[in-house]
Amino acid sequence: MPIQAVEPRRLYRQVADQLRQLIGSGEFGVGDRLPTERELADQLGISRPTVREALIALEVEGRIRIRVGSGIYVTAPPRAEILAAETDEGPFELLRAREFIEGAIAAEAALQVRPTDLDLLDDALRRMDDISLPATTTIMLDREFHTTVAGILGNAVLVRFIGEMFDQRMNPYFERLSSYFENKDSWRAAAAEHRAVRDAIAARDPERAKAAMQEHLRRSQLRFSRNFGESPATMEVAEE
């Protein structure tokens, strides 16, 4: 059997493994409340977004139940087929990568944009304004906007790459995270951020377009950065 390269495990997976072992060893029994996200981050010496990704992974597995405003509770052991599931990159890692890459694409798009490109962006934004649409439809419109920006460069590889990066959010972990933090208000905010990107591109201002795209994806991270297990009055935006 040939020797294969060893891939280092993502930090949030290591955190999930440690919490899973503590639960499995009986340190925390079924029904017990885990320390808050903030306390876990302090004890482990890592950022709260990393803890949050680990908690989401454990909830998808069925190991814990997150009750916003109440706490994080251990649940009955999950089925074996759920335990066998492996995660992709964490949501925050993905959004940080998109912030870097799509910022550069938006800057270049501002130099190459044509009237027909703006028509496509405007059409996507117009349909995105209907916040009564189902979440799945809104997400597809979000995807359409980002791939349309990439399409301005006339490079099919970039369009496919941005589409594939966006599609990574269609996993159980990102969907569970979204279920806690995405709502009509967050979609309104995202739509306004998309329009800022469109306006900067239309103005043919590459620096402004880059900043607008990066700000949009940075704010997407912040929208997912409330604290689990604390009352709404004490929730704060997590710092990385």
Count, helices: 11
Beta-strand residue percentage? under 5%
Q: What value does the average pLDDT take?
A: 81
Question: Which descriptor suits the 3D outline?
Answer: elongated
Order of helices and strands: HHHEEHHHHHHHH
Structural class: mainly alpha
Q: List low-pLDDT spans.
A: 4-8, 80-85, 229-240
The percentage helix is 55-70%
> Can you list the strand order of the major beta sheet?
1-2
**Rg calculated over all Cα atoms:** 20 Å
Total beta strand runs: 2
The largest sheet, given as strand count, sense and whether it forms a barrel, is: 2 strands, antiparallel
N→C terminal distance? 41 Å
Quickly describe the structure.
The protein has 240 residues and is mostly helical.
Structure commentary:
The structure is a single chain. With 240 residues, the chain is mainly α. The chain is built from eleven helices and two strands, in the order H-H-H-E-E-H-H-H-H-H-H-H-H. A hairpin with a 3-residue loop joins strand 1 and strand 2 (71-74). The longest helix has 22 residues, at 91-112. The chain is elongated and about 65 Å long. Residues 4-8, 80-85 and 229-240 have low confidence and may be disordered.
